[in-house]
């Protein structure tokens, strides 16, 4: 059956697999000290034009959030985060497991504004009893958000400004980073995004890799003995080459960006098609995920013909459903989908 | 340069890569719910002849030790372990990170005996103040050990017996399980080993996979909501298929055992060759790692021609060095090595 | 200066100090094994008419919440709690420090209703992805709440009923328990309250003791090796008698209840006096704390003459302030206060 | 029955109780902000002649070790400690609970030497794989040790020197500090001891207080937001005055030192008496605890007449038993004891 259920249903882009095959018998050092990993790190630093950045490869998104946040926060600090983020809901308490509180701010659409963050920080430091409270030690956002929305250059600039004033890092979860950067609605380059935060990660898993996320510390702020911290969290692969090779290929010949762009384009066709047929959008996404408010009876019928994700209950008779595209989505599948709805 | 540095210097066995290529475009469910993972689990249960076992796939050894131990222990419990084990030294405190103490017993050769474990448990419960001490909640051993030694059927049976008496699980770290089982010195079958413990894992990383370890709970003792625990530890891969496919191939057509056997045979040639040339063995290993006590000046010279691991300082003028073989070691390399020494 | 700032400004009720003096030179066992602690435990079990309850003494409220919650929850569980509770704000992340998420439900007045809890639990188990979420493992409420409100017998009965249906414990934080039980608005006895939850604690610190809280497990549910857990959390006093003696005296001759009743009565005089002078109550408290919405300029003037707590900003020109009474508040102080406002 | 079981069998020295009674009705700020606590801190800084020291009061020894170690270590660090220390055995894993490994060094008598510590640190940094190991982040010793031994000025100076070279703090557990400082064998003043470490604590519980330990950071090294960390660990008493008042009295008119000296003198009479009667000492203690190797049959007989602590099994027919004195031990009790043996 046709599936638009998520952006990780297939394996890896064929060029990535090919690279794994080609390099397979090279004897390399373990634990991320191999030559492919070194090349992949260099590629990423070049593409963001920041030679002093530091790059590390981890396996998945929850793991990356957990390790980056735990490594950058002091034990008495928590992380400011939008309340609708997956970290708050679908990561099984992975952040709290490390002892840190999520300081969740209510949002309308899952995006944090600089004004909201500033107000939280001001109120915190104005409170006579703030020494008995969890100190806000970081701001965390997703780009794009779980709902496919992106931040504008102005929005990111303002957020980063507040963080700089309060001397706390801005961390961008880029599980779907490429889909945001290549979105037709984006007004920001990769280099600019990297300058407008203190740490971010580039999602491999959801953009054509078998696994792997690349953490980038942008401002001489790699936590001391970060390798030890990664090992302590059980996240240091013996064959670090597995992820190094994949990112090396993703950042060769623009592959990462082309895959992202393709998915965004497919998603825009989905969006246009649904809107033309009168479907009601939940919000206006310009990235690889589209959310629609659909009657439950219609959802049930649709589910016979195509796979998608049920996102949330909207009201007694409607739910929000999600259609994802990815590097592997051929346009003919999109056209078939549009015929089905 | 010729390398016998470790058993994870290459990528994956070609049949595994081939399987990843073949299955690549299948659309599958995420987070370990894919059909390949299901098949791989079934294969493993068949090979140990235990239909009620439960199997889960994780990414690496430290991660697996951390999650299994944290999930099986009560918060006030620690794990009995031989003092020379890598968990005690080279895992960056990954177990203590989860709040559990390692209850390290001194050993001569890194192997725990049933008598030592029994004495520890008796002494513990005899202590009037044991309520102020960390409760021993598990026994952990490696098979083979970091020094390539294996336990006999009798030894494992006795260890398991003590554990049963005290109602604590016996956990076997099988990062190099195959090399033990296929050793010419082994008197135990895989099925028997699986019966003589409560939980073990089958190492993929060191036996031909790109990554991945298979945890097997043998006695209806999978921790409740284990998936949630895996997720909470940041260890649930979105593309769970990556590991499922690899284990499916490893346990098809006996591949896992053949690869292990090959490495053991190559290692025995190394051993014989070194002994014939008068090298002094550190201990008598029948698995894929050989340890020799060598003069430092000789080590320095040797290091110009071949890669190996420096293991530990033996005395003021000698060190212990290690030569590892693996699935990817051709016999001609072993013969070249023997010419060099 | 006259102070109504909180209910812990003085030392201990004189009868408690007297008891400490009288018993001082008795040689007793340490770590809570002394005869006074045993007697105090027996007294508490008698007063709640539950011989099979188990009682433990700890030092303060945050510590008690932390240990009880950590001991009763599984590692993958969190605790349902009203969003306005101090545990969420002013306990410095003490619960998250133990790895558990607070599952905060929005409330109007800081009280949780059975309907809200049931809805949360139903929604949780209806979610297809709940295995990736923090499991709700306990319901936590304060009696009275931080705002002095109490639950009726009906409300507690319904809350406990939901907990029983979902087989999770109901934990009542009784830092100010006596003030609730002795409130003129209370329709519940101590025995009934103890029956309507699975664990609660009796606050000593805020009811006339120097320190100390008594945890009571009501339904054969003391966590295994709880003493070990207390020790592991650094909370086992060598001279456990210090708290045992205080609770022994508090529960002799009705002292605990008389002290609580006195404070409630003083508080009602405060309330009546403020209302008569036209002060606007923030909510209707019948326990030992009164909250009023007052103009900031008036607050500033008042602060010259009497000490009270600034609670929260109400709007641009008003704040909520709190006046607390306790066992040590003489009626003449209350009358003086009323003259000042 | 006559008891020499431990040094915390009685309540508090009468002058301490008297002070609690006298100050009882003063209305004071909570959470350690009271005037008595401020005075007590000033007294301690005066007695060690270090105006820039910072002092905090906690409740018990395990708690103090746990909080100081957790606050001073980075998450990837552990603490070097002698293997026989109680922290390793009888503190229920309280340090590991906070995620830190104990790096235990074998010792003959429970004392660490500078040479042993230096060797450990050198070996650690020489290890090519030390990035995969727990970093040594602190040295912890007890003064006196659990066996009543003290360090000489030379020994402490050398230990501190190694710590300074490696830039890690030296932490002295002073649960029985006074008994060491006032020992006839001590060659060090309190001021000198405070200069020869980076943090230490003064035990109140075992020297005449009801509870309480005073942590002293000696070199501008109070951890940032330490109050928040104390609160987060559940260790901030609402009525901080309870401990402040006790230390204020202990450090008024030399009380702390007089109590310690008295106990040491009583202990020396015990020691002399036992030696004269031919008892075999386990080691040579000049502080308030004496350890003897005694035949088990004799121990059994003795236990009918006097209370003491059974310490450890020495061989098949002998055990080590301990006799403690304290501030409350009258000389006539010691004389009675000597008659009994």
Report on this structure:
Four copies of one chain form a homotetramer. The first copy, chain A, folds into two domains: 2-7 and 257-340, Aspartate Aminotransferase, domain 1 (Alpha-Beta Complex), CATH 3.90.1150; 14-255, Aspartate Aminotransferase, domain 2 (3-Layer(aba) Sandwich). The model of chain A has no long low-confidence stretch (mean pLDDT 96). With 341 residues, chain A is an alpha/beta fold. Chain A is globular, with a radius of gyration of 20 Å. The longest helix of chain A is centred in the last third of the chain and has 22 residues, at 255-276. Chain A is built from 14 helices and 13 strands. At the A-B interface, helix 1, helix 3 and helix 10 of A face helix 1, helix 3 and helix 10 of B.
């Amino acid at each position: 059956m046709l599936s638009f259920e998520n952006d990780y249903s297939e394996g890896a882009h064929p060029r990535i697999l090919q690279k794994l095959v080609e390099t397979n018998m090279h004897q390399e050092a373990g634990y991320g000290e191999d030559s492919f990993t070194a090349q992949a790190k260099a590629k990423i630093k070049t593409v963001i034009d920041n030679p002093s950045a530091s790059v590390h490869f981890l396996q998945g998104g929850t793991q990356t959030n957990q390790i980056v946040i735990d490594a950058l926060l002091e034990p008495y600090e928590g992380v400011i985060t939008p309340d609708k983020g997956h970290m708050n809901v679908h990561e099984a308490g992975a952040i709290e497991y490390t002892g840190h509180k999520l300081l969740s701010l209510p949002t309308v659409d899952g995006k944090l504004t600089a004004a909201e963050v500033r107000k939280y920080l001001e109120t915190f430091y104005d409170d006579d009893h703030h020494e008995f409270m969890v100190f806000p030690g970081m701001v965390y956002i997703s780009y794009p958000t779980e709902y496919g929305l992106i931040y504008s250059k102005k929005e990111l600039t303002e957020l980063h400004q507040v963080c700089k004033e309060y001397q706390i890092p801005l961390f961008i979860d880029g599980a779907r980073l490429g889909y945001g950067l290549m979105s037709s609605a984006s007004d920001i380059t990769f280099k600019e995004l990297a300058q407008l935060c203190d740490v971010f990660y580039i999602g491999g898993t959801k953009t054509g890799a078998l696994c792997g996320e690349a953490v980038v510390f942008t401002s001489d702020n790699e936590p001391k003995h970060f390798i030890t911290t990664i090992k302590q969290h059980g996240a240091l692969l013996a064959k670090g080459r597995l992820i190094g090779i994949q990112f090396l290929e993703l950042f060769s010949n623009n592959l990462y960006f082309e895959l992202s762009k393709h998915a965004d384009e497919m998603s825009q066709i989905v969006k246009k098609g649904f809107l033309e047929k009168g479907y009601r959008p939940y919000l206006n996404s310009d990235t690889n995920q589209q959310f629609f408010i659909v009657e439950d009876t219609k959802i049930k019928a649709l589910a016979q013909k195509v796979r998608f994700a049920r996102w949330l209950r909207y009201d007694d008779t409607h739910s929000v459903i999600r259609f994802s595209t990815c590097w592997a989505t051929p346009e003919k599948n999109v056209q078939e989908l549009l015929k089905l709805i």
